[in-house]
Structure formats: structure tokens, C-alpha cells
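Input record, target 12 of the design panel.
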């Protein structure tokens, strides 16, 4: 097992907030941090020692980047397979190209989960409008059609309530390869962020409970309000996912919990996840330090919780009437602010998040939501 010791260089493909928080962890531990991405001023490059600007398809630039880092990781999974392969010829790439190849394509991902005997919603592959109908009929309705590649935050998805919706849904997504999934009337959405080291060691952060607004994560509570049997089962599913893919790094498993207590895997993210941001304050080792430890061949850190916690995303909408009232949100001392350094606060754009610690997840959620409201409303109107 090779150790990439502090002082050496770590690189990240992608110049967003996940890369930024990974880089902050890397710099804290004395690593040199290099970012690769198409623009010069992203959240990650603001805190990097060096940024190499290039398209993800520009293999010569990617090779230049790979040549100046001792290990390379990702902040998102949608990089071309050829990019990961070109990098791997020159440096250590973690998680490896095979993990990316599986996780960047919903059909490959679901097929892998099935082959590992893990529970997923019924699904089928759709290549044409005619097939959209036949698959919807066979799998059952309602359902959701998703582009097999490059969807995020609910983009590239269309609901199919009845047979007549299937072909138009396929066309509305651009006529590209899709997966059709049975729509699950879940009771809760949960996720498990976990890490696996080069030595096969496994560590997880327990169950997070997530709620979405317009398909974008809005609020995460830790721990999730589920039975301990459900939590154990979700953790076991996650262990099987990381082991079956031989992940070295951090991976998040998103799951649905149904009314009768069944867990179904929704999707995998082979990197730190928005639901794990609260680990920065709420756990002994954050998901970003853990990613660093895993990919650098260091021992994994403790994932023991320090407190119950809740995280609320800050979308660009909060900037509609000028700069939010950050000082008001921080009046509660157990609330912590993270801003990603993005200019141009567009509606729906993730600008930052707030985390609150408390003795129960409900209390933490109440605190963090109140703090978020106070960003835009005078305190007198909330209290
Ligand atoms: N089969 C499904 N049944 C019910 N809800 C779904 C289903 N698939 C997705 N969703 C909802 O849409 C959200 C986003 O879908 P997801 O597959 O996680 O894609 P992404 O997060 O990449 O946009 C999920 O978190 C969930 O709320
Ligand atoms: Mg998702």
C-alpha cells in the first residue's frame, strides 16, 4: 500500500464546492492542492495552490495535470472514461476508473446493484420512444424516466403517470438512452456516506435523512429518524456497495425507505455528498478529510458523531433581495456558515449551507431552519 504523505500533492477533477472542501482538508493536513477544471475562478481553485484550466475532454491538459499530482480524486463523476484512463496512466486515481464508469451511468449502476443482490426499484432500459411505452407497461406505472448519463439535481428526469406519457417523456429528454424506474411512494429518503481505505477498512457516518425541494437537497438530519434495525440494514447495504465496487475513497448511497420498512437503493455518488456536509462539524472526521485519508493511503479517521445535527442548503434564491443577513443567522451559537465563494447567485444554485448542532436531530433541524429564515426575514418576524 503506497502512502502519499503530507507535503505531497493531491489533485481534484472539478472546480466546485466539493473540490473546495476537499482542498481545505488537504491543505489543513499540509498537502499541496491542485485543481483541474474548465474555469479559473471556481470555488475549489480559490483555495488551491495551483489550477490547471482545461476541458474534461482535453487529454493533453489532463495528462499535464496528472503529471503534477501524486494522487487524483474527483468531485463529480461525469468525466469521460478516456479522461480517467489518461490520468491513471500517469498517477494514482482514486476511486478508480471502474467505479466512475459504473456510477456515471444509471443503467450500469442499477445493473451492478442487482448483480450484488442489493434492493432497487424495478427498472428497464429505454432506447426509443416505442421502447419507452413497452418498458413502462412491463415495469408498471407511475414511473420516472431518467437519462442514463449526466443527470443531477432532478435534471434529465420526466414522470410517467400513464402510458400516453411515455413516448413524449422520452422525446422531452432529447431522445437519448434512458432508464425507466418504477416510482416509489417512499416514506423517507436516507443516505449513507461511507469510506473505504486501500487496506479494505470501511467506515460510515450512519444514516442521514434527506428532504428535497424541487429535486434539490434542502435539509439533512443526522441521525435519521428510523429504527435501529433499518439503520443497520442500510449500513450493511452500503458496505456491500463499497466492497463490490472495490471503492477506495468516499461514496454515498442514496436510498428510499418505504412505508413497510423496505430499503431500496436509488443512486450512488462516488465522492463526498451534499448530505454529508454536516460531518464537518458533527463528526470527528469530516467526509472531506476522510476522502483525503482514503485516497492518500492514510488510516481512516473516526466517524463517531459529536452531536445530532442538521444541514440546510443555501440556494441563490436567498440573494434575490440583496445580500442575506448572515449575522442574524449566526445569532444561535451552534449554527455554522459555509459559503462556497460563488459569484452570481442564480435561483437554484448551491451557494453555501448552514449546519446546526443539537442534542436531537429535530432540535438541530429547528435551529438550522430558523437560522436560514433569519437570512431573509427580520428576526422579529420569526420569533
Ligand atoms: N424511482 C423514484 N421514485 C420516487 N422518487 C424518485 C425516484 N427517482 C428519483 N426520485 C426523486 O427525485 C430525486 C432526484 O433523483 P435522483 O435519481 O437521486 O437523481 P439526481 O439526484 O441525480 O438528480 C430523488 O432524490 C427523489 O426524491
Ligand atoms: Mg440523487
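The sequence produced for target 12 reads:
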Amino acid at each position: 500500500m503506497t502512502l502519499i504523505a503530507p507535503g505531497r500533492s493531491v489533485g481534484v477533477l472539478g472546480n466546485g464546492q466539493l473540490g473546495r472542501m476537499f482542498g481545505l482538508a488537504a491543505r489543513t493536513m499540509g498537502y499541496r492542492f491542485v485543481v483541474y477544471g474548465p474555469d479559473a475562478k471556481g470555488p475549489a481553485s480559490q483555495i488551491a495552490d495551483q489550477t490547471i484550466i482545461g476541458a474534461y475532454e482535453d487529454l493533453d491538459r489532463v495528462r499535464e495535470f496528472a503529471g503534477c499530482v501524486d494522487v487524483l480524486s474527483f468531485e463529480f463523476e461525469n468525466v469521460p472514461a478516456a479522461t480517467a484512463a489518461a490520468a491513471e496512466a500517469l498517477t494514482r486515481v482514486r476511486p478508480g476508473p471502474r467505479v466512475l464508469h459504473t456510477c456515471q451511468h444509471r443503467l450500469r449502476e442499477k445493473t451492478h446493484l442487482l448483480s450484488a443482490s442489493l434492493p432497487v426499484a424495478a427498472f428497464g432500459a429505454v432506447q426509443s420512444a416505442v421502447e419507452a411505452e413497452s418498458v413502462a407497461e412491463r415495469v408498471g406505472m407511475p414511473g420516472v424516466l431518467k437519462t442514463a448519463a449526466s443527470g443531477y439535481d432532478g435534471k434529465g428526469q420526466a414522470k410517467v403517470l400513464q402510458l400516453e406519457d411515455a413516448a413524449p417523456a422520452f422525446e422531452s429528454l432529447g431522445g437519448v438512452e434512458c432508464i425507466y424506474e418504477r416510482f416509489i411512494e417512499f416514506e423517507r429518503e436516507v443516505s449513507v456516506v461511507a469510506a473505504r481505505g486501500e487496506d479494505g477498512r470501511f467506515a460510515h457516518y450512519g444514516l442521514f435523512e434527506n428532504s428535497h425541494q424541487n429535486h434539490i437537497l434542502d435539509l439533512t438530519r443526522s441521525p435519521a429518524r428510523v429504527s435501529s434495525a433499518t439503520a443497520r440494514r442500510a449500513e450493511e447495504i452500503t458496505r456491500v456497495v463499497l466492497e463490490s465496487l472495490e471503492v477506495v475513497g468516499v461514496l454515498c448511497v442514496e436510498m428510499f425507505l418505504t412505508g413497510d420498512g423496505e430499503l431500496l437503493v436509488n443512486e450512488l455518488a462516488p465522492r463526498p455528498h451534499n448530505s454529508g456536509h454536516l460531518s464537518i462539524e458533527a463528526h470527528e472526521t469530516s467526509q472531506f478529510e476522510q476522502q483525503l485519508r482514503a485516497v492518500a493511503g492514510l488510516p481512516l479517521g473516526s466517524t463517531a458523531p459529536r452531536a445530532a445535527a442538521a444541514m440546510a442548503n443555501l440556494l441563490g434564491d436567498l440573494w434575490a433581495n440583496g445580500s442575506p443577513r448572515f449575522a442574524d443567522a449566526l445569532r444561535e451559537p451552534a449554527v455554522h456558515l459555509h459559503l462556497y465563494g460563488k459569484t452570481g447567485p442564480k435561483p437554484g444554485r448551491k451557494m453555501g449551507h448552514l449546519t446546526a448542532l443539537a442534542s436531537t436531530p429535530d432540535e438541530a433541524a429547528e435551529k438550522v431552519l430558523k437560522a436560514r429564515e433569519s437570512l431573509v426575514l427580520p428576526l422579529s418576524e420569526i420569533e
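The two ends are 55 Å apart (CA to CA).
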